[in-house]
Amino acid sequence: MMIQLLFQLVFVEMGLILALVFGTPIRGLLIKALDLVKQGRGTIVAKTVAGTVSVVFISSLYSVIKIQKRSMETGSVNPTEEVLLAYHLLEASLMGFSLFLGLVIDRLHYYNKQLKRLKDSLEEIKQLQKGYTKGEHDSEELEEETKKK
């Protein structure tokens, strides 16, 4: 049961990453949703879940190491332990990958917000420059018209 949930989590995270990387219409909504999640209690919940997954991840790795040591001591591999080893290894891999993708989503969200801020400030600067240059031309035109008169 846990493996199916981890696969679903990994696929959802991969979809979020693809939506954040490429300029899709969903990206704006995702950034706003991530902003809301990161405000208030959202960060506490996210850190708690990440901490819990990390503890289970370490537990799975410990089980893998324990099974490997036992098989090295006996010199042969028990079929039941081999199945358990494969299960714990898959579980640990999916959890580690999920934690990594969560970190990637966090960084992409941060960089997309920074990019939007930079674009907005650049537009603001362009508008100010247009107004300034337009003001210069108007004053030059007024000076030329007054000289002609």
List the helices and strands and how they pair.
Layout: H1 2-21, H2 26-38, H3 42-74, H4 79-148
Helix pairs in contact: 1-2, 1-4, 3-4
Structure description:
With 149 residues, this protein is mainly alpha-helical. It has one domain. The protein contains 4 helices and no strands.
Name the features:
single chain; 149 residues; mainly alpha
Helical fraction equals over 70%
Rounded to an integer in angstroms, the radius of gyration calculated over CA atoms is: 28 Å
Q: What are the low-pLDDT stretches, counting only 5+ consecutive residues below 50?
A: none
Q: Between the first and last Cα atoms, what is the distance in angstroms?
A: 89 Å
Query: How do the helices and strands follow one another from N- to C-terminus?
Result: HHHH
The quaternary structure here is: single chain
